[in-house]
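tokens incoming
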């Protein structure tokens, strides 16, 4: 791999694409050349990189010649269509969609958990679901010592996980309610302002949603733990940015709060914010726009044997998407 690679961002004008560009800049990723690709309607737009404008070009099947690494964040259909063309052109794809996550030939990577899997790529690497990534930042360090068997969790997911239109819908609904106007909705099936929706992604015959099953399926693959079990309820909350997850995790080996805290304090990419007496605990407002996830509210579960409860918050546009993708690209250069 070229140590000053030619990098492309696919879906450059979307929320995650913009974060990818900012993250490459912030982390001083050794970009030799940057190409920004998007759909025809965004062609000609200029985005800033290191103080200079970069013109957005059209994503086509022939757009990848000479590109070393392509960070994709344009949805599963775009990834399925264009990633194989990128690979054919000799490019390594880091894909943020769900298109390849469960493909046995594609490594699914959280660099703090399974960086070694990067080496086995055949041209495509996958970023996990944002809620899975945020949860594993706190769960995996505990698993490495105490061996997790199962978790029961509930997510509190920000509207920016749905996209820019959802952010605008929440803003609009808040102002409509405050000014006594009727509430309009397009993105979600119900009002999201001053409400919570136990509905993220589409429902499966089991009664779970696709999003809820990602924690178990992706968690097994990332942690190399095929027996891992996860029962999750995913909830959309009227928060602009950063997802939170309430987790009860049961372990094989004896665990206690002091040992868990000592391990979490040393975990990479994680800040322990756990001082309830002084009202200090992770909150999406504090985790937003931060690279590190936050964990707190550590306590022994009072209903299950040898189980720990914790609360984790993390920016789903960063650790859940753009930051994780750039970290995978950094692993490629090592």
């Amino acid at each position: 791999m070229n140590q000053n690679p030619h990098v492309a961002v696919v879906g450059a004008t979307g929320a995650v694409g913009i974060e990818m560009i900012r993250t490459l800049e912030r982390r001083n990723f050794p970009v030799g050349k940057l190409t920004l690709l998007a759909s025809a309607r965004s062609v000609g737009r200029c985005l800033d990189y290191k103080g200079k404008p970069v013109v957005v070009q059209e994503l086509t099947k022939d757009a990848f010649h000479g590109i070393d690494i392509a960070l994709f964040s344009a949805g599963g259909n775009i990834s399925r269509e264009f990633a194989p063309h990128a690979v054919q052109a000799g490019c390594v794809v880091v894909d943020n969609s769900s298109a390849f996550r469960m493909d046995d030939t594609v490594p699914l990577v959280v660099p703090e958990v399974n960086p070694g899997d990067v080496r086995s790529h055949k041209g495509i690497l996958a970023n996990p679901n944002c809620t899975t990534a945020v949860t594993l930042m706190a769960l995996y360090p505990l698993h490495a010592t105490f061996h997790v068997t199962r978790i029961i969790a509930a997510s509190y997911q920000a509207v920016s996980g749905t996209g820019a239109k959802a952010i605008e819908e929440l803003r609009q609904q808040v102002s409509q309610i405050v000014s006594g106007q009727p509430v309009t909705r397009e993105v979600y099936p119900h009002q999201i302002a001053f409400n919570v929706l136990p509905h993220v992604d589409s429902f499966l015959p089991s009664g779970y949603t696709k999003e809820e099953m990602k924690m178990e399926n992706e968690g097994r693959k990332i942690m190399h733990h095929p027996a891992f079990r996860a029962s999750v309820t995913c909830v959309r909350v009227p928060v602009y940015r950063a997802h939170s997850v309430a987790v009860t995790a049961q372990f094989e080996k004896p665990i206690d709060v002091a040992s868990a805290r000592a391990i979490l304090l040393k975990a990479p990419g994680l800040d322990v914010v756990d001082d309830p007496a002084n009202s200090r605990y992770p909150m999406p407002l504090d985790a937003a726009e931060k690279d590190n996830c936050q964990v707190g509210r550590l306590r022994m579960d009072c209903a299950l044997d040898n189980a720990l409860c914790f609360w984790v918050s993390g920016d789903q546009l960063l650790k859940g998407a753009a930051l994780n993708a750039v970290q995978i690209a950094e692993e490629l250069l090592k």
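note: The domain at 6-127+321-333 is CATH 3.40.50.720 (Rossmann fold).
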